[in-house]
Amino acid sequence: MAFLYYLHLHTDLLKPEVKERLNPEKYTPFTLVEKEPLTPDTVRFRFRVNRPRFDGELEKLVDGIIAQGAWSMDIKDHMVQTYRTYTPVGFSMSDVVDEELGSRQGHLDFVVKRYPRGSLSRFLHDTKVGDQVEMRGPVLVWPYHAAKFRHLFMIAGGTGVAPMYQLVDRILKDPEDSGTRISLLYGSQTESDIIYREMLDELAKANGDRFSVTHLVDRGPAAAAKVGVPDMDTIRGFTGGFARGKDVVLVCGPDAMLAAVSGIKPIGSGQGPVQGVLRELGFKSADVFKF
Questions:
Q1: How far apart are CA 210 and CA 261, in angstroms?
Q2: Is 20 exposed, middle or buried (0-12, 13-18, 19+ CB in 10 A)?
Q3: Pairing of β 132-143 and β 226-227
Q4: CA angle 42, 213, 74 (to 5 degrees)
Q5: What's the pLDDT tens digit per position in 21-58?
Q6: pLDDT digit string (tens) for 218-244?
Q7: Distance in angstroms (rounded) separating the CA atoms of residues 96 and 170
Q8: Where is 203: in which H helix or E strand?
Q9: Which DSSP string corresponds to 229-275?
Q10: Residue 240, number of CB atoms within 10 A of its CB
């Protein structure tokens, strides 16, 4: 009896198998627990994530990947066996342990826009609360550590704000990264299409010396955003003071925006050459990263 009591207190051997665990090596089903409309065609999806009471090798692997920088998840449409990579805008785990199950519960948030021809986006938007979706990850997208750069210049469009938001949240919460500055130029079609506007503006207000956000919209009227596109003059002004080797420009958004600003990232590995406005302004491959 004493041995069984020890196993109960100090191990998970007597507990049910913990499901819905992050796993970078295989696809795992996760339950959709919440859908929140953000704009007319964009929704925040929240999936439940579980973690054993005592971390195992799998949790150490997951934490090691997340600690290395910006990360994403491969999400699969099991109906047609295709997948697409999405960057979570939020991930958290509770410290409260369900003693009966021997696990902790958390969540993983994604912001996804529905595209008429986007099979994965349509699949997710048709998913109902309570349904399960298969995912694999975390997957490291961009290595980053505290104080790696002096200044991050972020240029995002639409749901391309997801990796930027993940990084902004990470950097502003890290006391070891207090010297890093972040500037975000965020483009949307209209003011009603701006994703996470309130949260971004609050972060900028609370961290005015470290984080700033400029909203750019294609069409007005706009009460608190600049009407325009990320053209030569706008990006020249935005990246003023850029120091090669100390700063970096991060870009993420629709293909049309990428083509105009930095050049489209090729399918597969590699970044491709810097093109568009950034090339005309003299930026080199080492200065720019495309998500």
A1: 24
A2: buried
A3: unpaired
A4: 40
A5: 999 999 999 999 999 999 999 999 999 999 999 999 99
A6: 887 767 677 888 999 999 999 999 999
A7: 22
A8: helix 197-206
A9: ---HHHHHHHTTT--BTTEEEEEES-HHHHHHHT-PPPSSS------
A10: 9
52-66 tens-digit pLDDT: 999 999 999 999 999
* DSSP letter string, 143-186: E--TTS-SEEEEEEEGGGHHHHHHHHHHHHH-GGGTT-EEEEEE
pLDDT at 264 over 90: yes
CB atoms within 10 A of CB 18: 17
- How far the first Cα of the chain sits from its last, in Å, is 55
Q: How far apart are alpha carbons 128 and 230 in whole angstroms?
A: 36
8 A C-beta contact, residue 47 and residue 111: no
Residue type, 141: V
CA distance 164 to 153: 10
Q: What residue type is 244 in one-letter code?
A: R
Q: What is the dihedral of CA 18, 19, 22, 27, to 10 degrees?
A: 140
Please indicate whether residue 2 or residue 49 has the higher confidence score (pLDDT): 49
CA 134 – CA 19 distance, rounded (Å):
12
Query: Residue 9 carries which side chain, given as an amino acid letter?
Result: L
The helix or strand, by DSSP H or E, that contains position 222, with its residue range, turns out to be: none
pTM: 0.92
